[in-house]
User: Fold these one by one.
Assistant:
Number 1:
Amino acid sequence: MSHIINFSAGPSILPKVVFEEASQAVLNLNGTGLSILEVSHRSAYFEPILHEAMALVRELLGLPDDYEVMFLSGGASTQFFMSVMNLLPEGKKAAYVDTGVWSSKAIHEAKMIASIEVIASSKDKNYSYIPKGFDISPDFEYLHTTSNNTIYGTQYQSWPDSPIPMVCDMSSDIFSKPIEPHRFGMIYAGAQKNLGPAGVTLVIVRKDMLGKINKTLPTMLRYETHIQNESMYNTPPVFPIYVSMLTLRWLKNLGGLGVMQQMNERKARHVYDIIDSIPFYVGHSVPEDRSRMNVTFNLEDAALNKEFQTYCEEAGCDGLKGHKSVGGFRASIYNAMPEDGVKILAEVMKEFALKHA
Ligand SMILES: *Cc1c(COP(=O)(O)O)cnc(C)c1O
């Protein structure tokens, strides 16, 4: 294997053992003599894989029986409008919190087809914090939030006490820590940050959120279609689901989300300690809302950006360039990033700052 440490924001690193098992299954799935890429989704080869993936999602997240689990395609971006079409009855309004580019896109899509209100935003400070203390009227049907803001490096460390169910885009921190399912009427996440390859989207809906829409929706856009057909109304993304299942197995073997959370806290601290102790680096997020998944920072002297990037790359640290809306750098340290990888980055940051002291 290469010695490159991949800090890419997504698609991103997956556990090494998952890469190995997935590549083996491309050649020969569990000794069947068939590739995972050629088996029918309605075969005895694939159905147990899908069922195991669904069961692991339930087990790891601790989902009660009244939640439905779906593996869909179209990315989290499709859920920006599909959630609205399925959950927001005519004459009702939904509330949104705007915490960055992805929230804004969700808001943009929702506004095209329904009546929504942005009740809190951190746009005034380039999304460097999570809004708190805002009122949530129980008249809204639901509250849409984005748990981790991949681009800005902010993350909810606690949830507002919402009188209405939350609909949450968890694309970049799902399975990184335990959640409290009862807060959420719906959860969705593109797989490519913390779960698997691009091409599958995990969608979780509580049953009582459904059945309130009078309008007829196209078959593929109805959650009921996918629930009734166990995500096999049409051909599901077989390979991304298989790889996601392998990642979920890895998570379970590791000890589950409580253990994962401790590891993620420790990993993030290595980089934030450098940012806090060396003024050469300036973190983007306010400390209390810092993401454990995406660490965003700028160099005090932006003229050194190119040199820093090259220095990191020479040390094997790849994918650190920040998103254009924040600039600077972003270290994505998802579940699969080993602690040693983060330690190397912290060391490189320390050395580079010393060199320029
Ligand atoms: C990456 C990301 C998305 C986009 O997901 P797609 O699957 O590419 O549509 C949406 N929301 C968040 C929070 C993300 O990090």
Note: The first strand starts at residue 5 and ends at 6.
Number 2:
Amino acid sequence: MARMAVTMAALTMVALLRGAEATRFIVGGNMGWTTNVNYTVWAQDKHFYNGDWLFFVYDRNQMNVLEVNSTDYASCNSDNPITNWTRGAGRDVVPLNVTRPYYFISGKGFCYGGMKLAVKVENPPPPPVASPLNGAPPSIYRGTIILPTVFAIGAMWDAFVWVW
Ligand SMILES: *[C@@H]1O[C@H](CO)[C@@H](O)[C@H](O)[C@H]1NC(C)=O
Ligand SMILES: *[C@@H]1O[C@H](CO)[C@@H](O)[C@H](O)[C@H]1NC(C)=O
Ligand SMILES: *[C@@H]1O[C@H](CO)[C@@H](O)[C@H](O)[C@H]1NC(C)=O
Ligand SMILES: *[C@@H]1O[C@H](CO)[C@@H](O)[C@H](O)[C@H]1NC(C)=O
């Protein structure tokens, strides 16, 4: 029990410290970039922050990944892509490195069936404020100071509490 509580505390701390880290999204989750996935639904519960990445995994013999503007996204026009992200392996990585909306479609007719993705890239949220310590040192030092404390307390608990 004690061990578990300490582990949870340590993990929570790590999660907080990782707050500002970039996320790599596999577009469509385990379905990937394909037909019969509603990418509006896939994207709607996610936050995309500047510095995150999109990873398109798909059948390289059929689909592709084109970044287009909002007009061409709406009409599925693949004639004037802003960026052709297709590299040929069916594994394309797109850095979301500008805070703006991004629009992706597959050409070759698949966009008409719903193979289109719009994401709104936002500025990353500010790093979490350290509530346990008032006047905490800058976040870069937080891990080095708090984590040893957590582990030290954990070691004490382990020494005295052996109830599971
Ligand atoms: C998208 O690009 C097309 C073709 O270049 C252009 O006609 C259209 O106005 C553009 N739409 C936007 C919203 O910029
Ligand atoms: C996109 O780039 C790939 C690889 O260079 C190329 O084979 C393909 O024809 C391009 N597609 C479009 C629509 O420009
Ligand atoms: C974003 O990434 C693209 C592709 O790697 C690159 O060409 C572009 O310069 C980058 N833009 C910024 C603002 O970093
Ligand atoms: C995806 O789902 C949204 C919300 O339910 C719906 O408005 C939209 O028409 C769907 N798109 C496709 C291509 O089915």
Note: The chain has two domains: 2-18+129-163, 24-122.
Number 3:
Amino acid sequence: MSASPSIPRADLYAAADRFGTPLYVYDAAELDAALARVQAAFGGARVFYAMKANPNLALLARLRASGVGFECVSAGEIARAEHVGAGGEDILVNGPAKSREEYETGARLGAIFVVDREEEVGLLPPGSRALVRVNPALNVSTHDHLATGAAGSKFGVTPAQAPGVLRALREAGHHALGLHVHIGSAIRLVTDFGAAFARLAELRAHTGELEVLDVGGGWGLGADLPGIAREAREAASAFGAQLWVEPGRYLVARAGTLLTRVVGTKRTGRNFLLTDAGMTELLRPMLYGAVHPVTPLWDGGEAQTWDVAGPACESGDLLARDVALPEPNPGDLLAVGDAGAYGAAMSGSYLTRPRPAEALWEGGAWRLIRRRETPRDVWAAEMGAYTASTHDRQGP
Ligand SMILES: *Cc1c(COP(=O)(O)O)cnc(C)c1O
């Protein structure tokens, strides 16, 4: 795993000087390469990018230009898809608890809905195109919070319910395209996917042929894509269906790197390397125990073992544990790799920390694709409710 794909160290320092840190950087060549790997493995399948992995407009526009559609799970995501020019054919509206606004904007655009429960048949706008999400109730090899296809998960209908929901959709005048399954995220074992897809294929006897089988995403970075694709094609052919896929992480994770400056060090029995990025910029280590590769962009002597800790007043605010790095100097840059998915997307303004800037490396040059927020951006929505003039009237 490389932490900063093919961007020269001097250019990473140049970006940090120009845009400040913490900074997300993306390598356009790696984004394109990931899409090419997906297209090679799943040749012929329709690709919908699950934009929750990284909704940056510049990245969406780039994927759009390659013919990729979007899987959206909120009204805001639908608005982003529309903003980069996606039409209804290219938008899947998904989610376990869709809002009225999501149905309405989806309908206005002519988007395709993924039905997550029986009751939704009566909520869809008239004449909707729809897939039915099935929960295959399987245990998969990923963190509990990343498993969406396990028994007891809130997603989808049961395999036993699925044929009835397809029928109900048709009876209500909707266009039932087929079935959908997404078993979770960061899954590496082909057998996990194979078991889920086979569980769906078993429904063929009750559903008849279908137009579409959407097998979701969830492919871990080290996953055997051709192996997953083989299982998916087999299931799709059981239904005589066209294959659709919804990768998120796989398309953007490798391309992204979080650049953070070393603030200093501290020794308390453990060695802490303190950085200017933490849980507010990259939540995954704290949320999922995710392990991201860290690469020192400084030259040093012998490596020591460090915990990389952020600035937040939370003891869980660690970017990495027990990593071997040479002694740094304040201001040195640390590259946190494989951070393009669920990194910037999950960044937050807790502690009134403005969200970080994002920059794209393309053709040997940097382009700022999201400016760094300011503290004023963070409290902008509070203005009017409390103004400086109110404060002035009431005194200190
Ligand atoms: C999150 C999600 C995806 C993408 O998951 P990745 O692990 O990022 O590939 C695809 N489909 C659905 C329904 C999702 O919720």
Note: The domain at 9-24+253-379 is CATH 2.40.37.10 (Lyase, Ornithine Decarboxylase; Chain A, domain 1).
Number 4:
Amino acid sequence: MHKDLKDRLTNISQKIQAACLEAQRSEKDVKLIAVSKLQSIEVIKAAYSLGINHFGENYAQELDKKVLATPKDIIWHFIGPIQSNKVKLIAKHAHWIHSLEREKVAKKLNDALEKERRKIQVLIQVNIDQEESKSGINSNNVIDFASHIDVNCPNLILKGLMFMPKINQSKKDKIDSMKNITALQNTFVNKFPACNVLSLGTSNDFEESILAGSTMIRIGESLLGRRS
Ligand SMILES: *Cc1c(COP(=O)(O)O)cnc(C)c1O
């Protein structure tokens, strides 16, 4: 398993390097987040031993269990839908949240963080292709939601936007999605200059995402192997 993991990491690192070269961007500006949902503690430890220290989780209870059993200097990214009854666990452990999309949840998180005496860096999830089944807010509401967080949630440090574009779309539609993302990102950063993080790209599309300006790619199965 360890050897496979190492090979997969080498393969992905080479692809990241090539995409950065093509985009004329520095590799330092693209953070690799290993999405470890439904993966074992052993897999996380093995990836950590290869130098990965950013991990992404989708479920609060799983995050809780894993944080307690893994090295203390791991940076944890919460990337899944946030259930209001789980905000306490997320407030306790996560360093980043990529999936903020509701004012009510933002307020609950802010209150829970107050009790924990912590702050969390957050990204607003945007449903760029307006898919019924997908989480995230509509592009038109991004500025208002960001202003709301800015004014009302001092424990949430707004850093940027997160996207999960449609998978399995035609090449042309994929390029259109990426263009829409880049345009929205530019408008957003104009308004909120400190919020230049762009979380975009999974196993499927991380190379195109780097070309579109992604600064955080979230890679699961193609790095850590099939989820159980
Ligand atoms: C699971 C997940 C990923 C990783 O997907 P892979 O296809 O395994 O790379 C990335 N982002 C989010 C929000 C996810 O839920």
Note: Residues 35, 37, 58, 79-80, 164, 202-204, 218-222 surround pyridoxal-5'-phosphate (CB under 6 Å).
